[in-house]
Amino acid sequence: MDGVDPAIAGRDQLPSLREGFxxxxxxxxxxxxxxxxxxxxxxxxxPELTPADALAxxxxxxxxxxxxxxxxxxxxWRERGAQLQAVVGRLTELRFDALRYExxxxxxxxxxxxxxxxxxxxxxxxDGVRSISNLPTEEVFTAPDPQxxxxxxxxxxxxxxxxxxxxxxxxxxxxxxxxxxxxxSGANALRARCAxxxxxxxxxxxxxxxxxxxxxxxGITYFNTLLDENAASHFALGGAYATSVDEQDRGxxxxxxxxxxxxxxxxxxxxxxxxxxGSEVPVLRGGSxxx
Length: 291
What we know:
Blueprint (H helix, E strand, L loop, with lengths): L5 H4 L9 H8 L12 H7 L5 H15 L7 H22 L3 E6 L2 E7 L10 E2 L5 E2 L7 E4 L1 E11 L4 E3 L2 E3 L3 E5 L2 E6 L4 H8 L8 E7 L4 H5 L6 H4 L5 E5 L20 E5 L6 E5 L5 E6 L2 E2 L2
Antiparallel strand pairs: 1-2, 1-14, 2-6, 3-4, 5-11, 6-9, 7-8, 9-10, 11-12, 12-13, 14-15, 15-16
C-alpha cells in the first residue's frame, strides 16, 4: 500500500465476509490459517539480504516456527496444545473479574464477562473433530466485556493494517471504547478501521502469550499479525468469538465486521488478575506464568 492514503486503505478490509465470524462461532467448519513465504514479505523481514536469500531465510524460519523440523509435527503441536490447555483450565478456574496490564506506556484494566472462559491449543467442532485453527499458535484467549476497558496501552510490535505499517501505537480507552489513537506512523489507517462500525472501537479479544513460544524466542518481528500476535500478549479490536462465553453472555460480547490484533505484551509488561472482592493474583511476570 505504499503511496496509498492510510485513511483510505484503512477503510478497505480486503476480502472479508461478515458471515465468516458466524461460521466460526457456530463451529460447523474446520478452518486453518498458515503463513506462506513470498519474496516481497521476506525482504521486509530481512532487508539486509538479497531477495532470494531473504526468501530462503524466511522459509527456514517458518519450518522452525511451524514445528516442521520435528519428526512428527502433528504430535509436536498436540503436545504444545496440551500445555496451552492446562493454562486455559487454570485461568478459567480462577474466574477473574478483570485483568490489569502495567508496563512502559501501559496502564490498562480490562473487564471480563461473568462467563468469560479462556481457550487455546485447539478446539472441537460440533461433529467432535479437533483441530488447531491458527498455525503457529502460542496464545490463550477470551472475550472481554466490551463496556469495560479503561486506561492506556502501548503496542510492543508494529501492526499491519491493510498494508499500512502502524509503528509506535498508543491507544487510550474509556468505558470500553477507543477514544484516542496515536502512533509514530500509520495512525490514520487504524482510526479508519475503528470507524468501520459500532463495535470496531471496542475490544473483542484479549490474549495472553508466555515467553516459551518459538516466535517470541526468535526475537524477530515478522510484520505479519499471525506470527507477531503469537510472540506477545495482544488485544483485538472488533468481533469476539462467541465460544469464549456461555450462552447467557452471548448477547454481551462485542460484534463487528473487523478483528484487528495488536501486540501489547513483553517481558516488561506485568499482567495481574483482579477478583471482584479486590484481591489480586499475578498472572504474567517477566513473560512467565505465575498461576
